[in-house]
Amino acid sequence: MNITGTTTIMETDDINIETTKTHRPARSRSRKIRGFSFVPFVPFVPFVVLLLVVPLFVVPILVVPLFAVHLFVAPPPAAQLRGGMIRGRIDVRRPAPLSERRPTVADLGTPTRLVPESRPPSVVYLETAPRGAFEQNEPARVVLDQRNETFVPHVLAIATGTTVDFPNSDRIYHNVFSLSKAASFDLGRYAAGRSKSVRFDRPGIVRVFCEIHSHMSAFILVFSHPFFTMTDGDGRYRLEGIPPGTYNVVAWNEGVSSEPMAVTVPSSGAAELDITIR
């Protein structure tokens, strides 16, 4: 009896010891610094170094080829893809228009004098645009100034979708308007230093005037394609970036247009064409 009781007590003590060992917290090798556990990080140093150093070599290897592909695959401008050109000279044999000079105090009581204007530039354009030309138009913004009671420039050639600013650079009021079919507008009177604008969305010829000063006028030629240009001081012109083919070319000067003239544009190089406006 006693032996059995003793054995029972010993088994009970073994169980208690195992239970006690089970709930006893395991020893930790970490060092406590003011309540925080500090684990040696030496084994993680190589891993951290790899994370920091590898991208320095991998990123350039991946990015540089992509950048190079972008540079060499990007499509070149239309002028490089289409090397055709039409060039020549416009000979205007009509007399220069006369304009009424604004009278001064000394001119009071004297007949009105008309003075010849300087020869305005001509506008040269394709009568019919090649296929795909309408997809190249991009909205633009140009200026038609009012300076010394004159529209500057006197002739303006633009593409549809272009916005024209009409600043007043004089010290007096101006009132820009037009009654043309392509664009009809009235900007009202506005003082010096101010500017108003009009967007032109329809092709055609727009005559511009000033409601206050009858001697002020200008032309705006609006095209639905980009194949137009203006002559320089010598009457020469260049139409560039034209696809190869045969086209009719028209020259315009101060309300008068020439007869369409056919010209064949090569795939590269230039076609010569001189036009006379009588």
Topology of this protein?
Blueprint lengths: L1 H22 L7 E3 L2 E3 L6 H29 L4 H4 L1 E10 L5 E3 L13 E3 L6 E4 L14 E3 L1 E3 L2 E3 L2 E5 L2 E6 L6 E6 L4 E7 L4 E6 L3 E7 L6 E7 L4 E3 L5 E7 L2 E9 L2 E2 L3 E5 L2 E5 L2 E3 L1
Parallel strand pairs: 3-22, 3-23, 7-11, 10-16
Antiparallel strand pairs: 1-2, 3-18, 4-5, 6-17, 6-19, 8-9, 11-14, 12-13, 12-15, 15-16, 19-20, 19-21
Task: Explain the overall architecture.
The chain is α+β, with helices and mostly antiparallel strands. It has two domains: 31 residues, no CATH class; 192 residues, Immunoglobulin-like (Sandwich), CATH 2.60.40.420. Helix content is 20%, strand content 41%. The protein has three helices and 23 strands. Strands 6, 17, 19, 20 and 21 form a five-stranded antiparallel beta sheet that branches. The longest helix has 29 residues. The chain is globular, with a radius of gyration of 42 Å. The chain starts with a helix and ends with a strand. 18% of the residues are buried.
